[in-house]
Amino acid sequence: xxxxxxxxxxxxxxxxxxxxxxxxxxxxxxxxxxxxxxxxxxxxxxxxxxxxxxxxxxxxxxxxxxxxxxxxxxxxxxxxxxxxxxxxxxxxxxxxxxxxxxxxxxxxxxxxxxxxxxxxxxxxxxxxxxxxxxxxxxxxxxxxxxxxxxxxxxxxxxxxxxxxxxxxxxxxxxxxxxxxxxxxxxxxxxxxxxxxxxxxxxxxxxxxxxxxxxxxxxxxxxxxxxxxxxxxxxxxxxxxxxxxxxxxxxxxxxxxxxxxxxxxxxxxxxxxxxxxxxxxxxxxxxxxxxxxxxxxxxxxxxxxxxxxxxxxxxxxxxxxxxxxxxxxxxxxxxxxxxxxxxxxxxxxxxxxxxxxxxxxxxxxxxxxxxxxxxxxxxxxxxxxxxxx
Amino acid sequence: xxxxxxxxxxxxxxxxxxxxxxxxxxxxxxxxxxxxxxxxxxxxxxxxxxxxxxxxxxxxxxxxxxxxxxxxxxxxxxxxxxxxxxxxxxxxxxxxxxxxxxxxxxxxxxxxxxxxxxxxxxxxxxxxxxxxxxxxxxxxxxxxxxxxxxxxxxxxxxxxxxxxxxxxxxxxxxxxxxxxxxxxxxxxxxxxxxxxxxxxxxxxxxxxxxxxxxxxxxxxxxxxxxxxxxxxxxxxxxxxxxxxxxxxxxxxxxxxxxxxxxxxxxxxxxxxxxxxxxxxxxxxxxxxxxxxxxxxxxxxxxxxxxxxxxxxxxxxxxxxxxxxxxxxxxxxxxxxxxxxxxxxxxxxxxxxxxxxxxxxxxxxxxxxxxxxxxxxxxxxxxxxxxxxxxxxxxxxxxxxxxxxxxxxxxxxxxxxxxxxxxxxxxxxxxxxxxx
Lengths: 388, 435
Known about the structure:
The complex is a heterodimer of chains A (388) and B (435).
Chain A: H1 10-23, E1 38-42, E2 47-49, E3 53-55, E4 57-65, E5 71-76, E6 83-90, E7 95-102, E8 105-111, E9 120-127, H2 139-173, H3 177-193, H4 195-199, H5 204-209, H6 224-231, H7 243-265, H8 271-289, H9 301-319, H10 328-346, E10 349-350, E11 353-354, H11 362-379, H12 382-386
Parallel strand pairs in A: 1-4, 3-9
Antiparallel strand pairs in A: 1-2, 4-7, 5-6, 5-8, 8-9, 10-11
Chain B: H1 10-19, H2 24-49, E1 78-86, H3 91-109, E2 143-149, H4 150-153, E3 191-197, H5 200-214, E4 218-226, E5 228-229, H6 258-264, E6 281-290, H7 292-296, H8 300-307, E7 331-332, E8 335-336, H9 343-347, E9 358-359, E10 362-368, E11 374-384, H10 387-390, H11 392-401, E12 408-418, H12 430-434
Antiparallel strand pairs in B: 1-3, 1-4, 2-3, 2-12, 5-10, 6-11, 6-12, 7-8, 9-11, 10-11
Helix pairs in contact in B: 3-5
């Protein structure tokens, strides 16, 4: 959010009062006229804008729902069809901002109280942008390219995941433990690269990837980590799976992965999903991998770590063209920090894979953790930069 | 040896407490932590109170009553909670300790020092009875609430003090909830002591002195300091914010709602061996660490969707203001405006069969961990009439489905049976031991 009045107490009150005077509405949020926002009031039968034109560049509409129904606000292209930007789901009495990068041209604004019909429309003019802030007219095309590329990546990873899972399941069920142990981490990397996508299926994630502590009392434990525990058995107090149980687990693992692969075929992506997904992958690293909690028994956390970073980097690279211009600084910071983290990870490579997590010293863990934090900060700003 | 004779007594005590009601120390603390704003608030508060309360300038909370203090008492800002393991095997030693605790709590709650000699008037050749660090401070709305854990009644099949038959059925072993990462050293305990006050030093003083009295009979198992209330328990209080930056406890039970308290907080109608719990409550404690750093990297859109309320006002995403009832049925373009897996959608009483809790939690921070991340979060405290109906089902749902669970990790846990209040001349838990 581009709010400039986060200050508590006095400062916020002053800003709110200023907004009230200038915008002539009962806005008590932080959107002040001083940040150049176009104030929009949406009621049952009116869509009132504080201005019907603005200079090109990054535009902000501060939309306040003063009606009694849920409302939406749209900025539409000259044809009245193409959506340049939208904010949806604004509850009565609430405010929401639309921040969008817009080149010079003719547009329409529309409030849609009740979320039905064409909305209450009006013409809106975007004048020439101040020098240095011009926006390319091809931004929508760039966004489309990014999501198409990423969809292809997800497709490729799920296919490889399915093929690898079948191979793993076969070895696991057959009691060929060495092969199964060798396949476990590399195959899981395909899952970890697209983890936020897989996790978006709330029913598949727990059956495929639940850790023991994630379970409820009485809940059946299936998926990768169940197999992990059987392949790297605790020294005491563990009852190994029977051949029949292994077969059952292996069959379910394959069936659930097939289901996942099927469902990803129909997924559609948007730039914010890509960018949020990249950020979530680093969150996964920060909370699960860098602490060694993901792979309790196999200690293959660094494989997952690398895969999460891979997935985040692909999303970033697909979105990179959208950072040209006002996002250059962010782009440079991301490039630098991805490289630094990769360089650190590479120090822990061993053979085809990595050292085990329990072989890392405390200092090395700390170093990795700092590098994750350093990358996560700029990455958390990617969404706001690419959705405009 | 006697720690129990209060001094000064009766009306003198009130006068003494009143003299300390606006001490130097509390002014320094106010200015130090909150700056001018808080100091101004203190002054405004005192002038508002006006002549009507002039004779009650003391900031002491009554200790005696039908219920223990520290439950419906307007939530103070500071807390020190300690769980004790009883080390003695002698029932009389245990009740003697509870009697001594009762006298000490009574004195401290009134703003007095502990024991006949207090901090400086005792035998010069002996260590002072009161440790003294709260001596120039006011009563500071200190409340000390005591409860009993499951293990006091029975441990590994042993009926330790002949109390097994009196263990209430509601004092269950809490089940494992998905995602729990409980640490033994932060969980359980035979006796719980919740000390709350306006001034942290007063709360810490209380726990320190009770621990000292307990030596030889009970030892501290774990203790936790909380630095900011995360719930309002009175409609006169504004809703505070938790460390996620959101208002917390908007829909909390309020002490003004006697009917709801009777139904959801206080135990009533308990029969037979459990009759001692009538007028008491159950205290659920959970140390909930927050993944602060990942939360801080989350977009405002996501934060509001996870909570189900706006960050600034605390309005439900279905619209209105903070105290507007959430409309969980109100649909947006892609599902309900208040997402089905948002915290408010799962935790709100209307979604839990009308079940309510009196939440009385605190923000905590215990410094940083080895990776430099804040070891901070919410020390959740709730008082309920029966944890089997008023806590377990809701926590099970939240652990399974709450979008917020991704940012939380439960690291400590405890459930305690809190006996009713102490009448004049009685002691804490008397009904359990003597009835």
